[in-house]
Design goal:
Elements lengths: L1 H12 L9 H10 L6 H7 L5 H13 L3 H27 L2 H13 L1 H7 L5 H21 L2 H17 L3 H15 L3 H18 L3 H9 L2 H4 L7 H11 L3 H10 L5 H25 L12 H5 L1 H9 L5 H19 L12 H14 L5 E5 L19 H8 L16 E3 L10 H6 L6 E6 L2 H14 L5 E4 L8 E8 H7 L2
Parallel strand pairs: 1-2, 1-3
Antiparallel strand pairs: 3-5, 4-5
Helix pairs in contact: 1-5, 1-6, 2-3, 5-6, 5-7, 5-8, 5-18, 6-18, 6-19, 8-9, 8-10, 9-11, 10-16, 15-19, 16-18
Length: 490
């Protein structure tokens, strides 16, 4: 059953594997595009742990820097996770129909497909979440030393894949404490938690730095986000049939009921905690990527609830209804590109412009990277490292989609007031050079960025043209100094 689910997952994911990278994936490409020594600090600049990027770096040394090669680790993780869900479902219930339903829901879910075809860490985090909960359940039943060791290993590995998983791991520890049936298991948990913390504490300064920048995420993560409430409403809807059925049938506390409480707690407690920290301003965590571990467990929660329904006909009806609901609310509308940021097409078009233009031409890029605000007011402690941050701001055009060599300079722009000339541009740019301006955004956004730039440089006059080749969410413009434009007019 797990193999069949994995094959279905591959079929549904493969059409999106070769589309243009979007800006987050371009950060991955930039991190791994040079030597291994560059990986840790480039990952940290994007507030990421380096473990995943080291995996991708090693892989791309063998395969080269391509869309498919950057995404393949995620594809393997996403397919493996879907197969694991089906295999665990069959192991827990010995019911092929329950396993098939859980596997189908996992294989066709739009978030699962997205993360499995994205050159980011989240598909691997999904695998770790499933393994963590499986180990936790085995420990609650048997309290074996090897399972505790493996739980520590997987928890630490998950943390070093993505720091946000620490929320999931803390909640899992709380659920083990709540469901342990003797003090000995709780003592073993304390020892395991201590071992894990010894391996995590070494990066506390990094976490402290990220926490100080938490206001960055508060700009786009809110407790009232319509996207997030829609995500959870649609993702949890498939559980409704079995919530009703278990309410009809469950009358006593059993091992299966305890398992359902464990899985249910690991779905809802992290989500509720993230919502609370976001609503109170402590840390903006109510965001699908940061809660992907909990979302991954929804099919397993369905399995746990199905195991509590003894009547086979009712259980089969619930499975059919759950799959229909999931298909209607969570399946993608089509198979293929999912990101909508076609940097590949725009950089190819801009490359042709640069190659055909004999004049030295500057390139400005407004990549929409929130960390680039540092370019406007760099703190004194980072002045020696500003060349690295300037490279970070230009990352979409300096790795897999690098522009050709040409006479001219490249400049990054800030996230806030996008388009406004940075101190570096004012200091180092030359007024007589044409400009290629690349913008992450729609046509109105690109036009506003251009206007912001013109307003910030009132001493320079440009004629702005919009090349024919444009895409929906990545645009570009050519700015020609007015005196040069006058010379080219017939």
């Amino acid at each position: 059953m797990g193999v069949g689910t994995a094959l279905l997952a591959v079929v549904l994911r493969w059409p999106a594997i070769g589309e243009s990278l979007w800006v987050d994936e371009l950060h991955t490409a930039w991190v791994v595009s040079d030597g291994i020594a560059d990986v840790p600090y480039r990952a940290e600049m994007g507030n990421q742990a380096s473990f995943y990027f080291l995996i991708v770096w090693l892989w791309t040394q063998l395969t080269g820097l391509h869309e498919w090669s950057l995404r393949l680790p995620s594809l393997v993780g996403g397919v493996l996770c879907a197969g694991l869900i089906a295999a665990i479902a069959h192991r827990w219930t010995r019911d092929v129909w329950v396993a098939a339903a859980a596997g189908i829901i996992a294989a066709m879910d739009i978030d699962w497909i997205f993360f499995a075809t994205e050159a980011r860490v989240y598909a691997l985090v999904q695998v770790m979440a499933v393994v963590q909960v499986l180990l936790a359940w085995q420990l609650l039943q048997h309290d074996r030393r090897n399972d505790w060791i493996w739980l520590v290993v997987v928890t630490v590995a998950s943390f070093y894949l993505h720091y946000s998983t620490i929320l999931f791991s803390f909640c899992l520890a709380g659920m083990i404490v709540a469901l342990a049936d003797n003090q000995r298991k709780r003592q073993h948990l304390l020892i395991a938690a201590g071992c894990a913390m010894m391996l995590i504490v070494i990066v506390l300064p990094v976490l402290a730095g990220i926490f100080q920048r938490r206001e960055n995420w508060a700009q786009f993560i809110t407790a009232t986000s319509r996207n997030e409430w829609t995500r959870w409403g649609t993702a949890l809807a498939a559980l409704v049939p079995f919530v009703l059925l278990t309410a009809m049938y469950v009358r006593h506390w059993s091992a299966e009921a305890r398992r359902a409480v464990l899985i249910g707690g690991m779905v809802f407690v992290p989500i509720a905690t993230a919502w609370l920290t976001t609503a109170t301003g402590v840390a903006a965590l109510f965001f699908g990527r940061y809660l992907i571990s909990s979302e991954t467990l929804i099919p397993l929660l369905l399995v746990s609830l199905a195991a509590l329904v003894p009547a086979s006909k009712w259980r089969m009806g619930g499975l059919v209804l759950a799959v229909v609901i999931a298909f209607g609310l969570r399946a993608p509308q089509y198979l293929g590109p999912m990101r909508g940021e076609d940097w590949r097409t725009i950089t190819q078009a801009a490359s042709r412009e640069l190659e055909s233009n004999p004049q030295p031409t500057d390139v400005l890029i407004s990549a929409g990277l929130i960390e680039t605000d540092i370019l406007a007011r760099p703190p004194k402690r980072l002045m020696l490292f500003m060349h690295v941050w300037e490279s970070y701001a230009r990352l979409p055009i300096e790795s897999i989609y690098a522009l050709p060599e040409h006479e001219g300079d490249h400049f990054g722009l800030t996230y806030t007031n996008p388009g406004k000339a940075t101190p570096e541009y004012r200091r180092d740019s030359q007024a007589d050079r044409p400009i290629v301006l690349i913008v992450r955004g729609t046509q109105p956004v690109a036009d506003q960025v251009v206007q912001n730039f013109l307003n910030s440089m009132p001493d320079r006059q440009y004629v702005v043209t919009t090349p024919e080749t444009q895409t929906a969410r990545v645009q570009w413009r050519v700015l020609l100094p007015r005196d040069q434009a006058a010379q080219t007019e017939p």
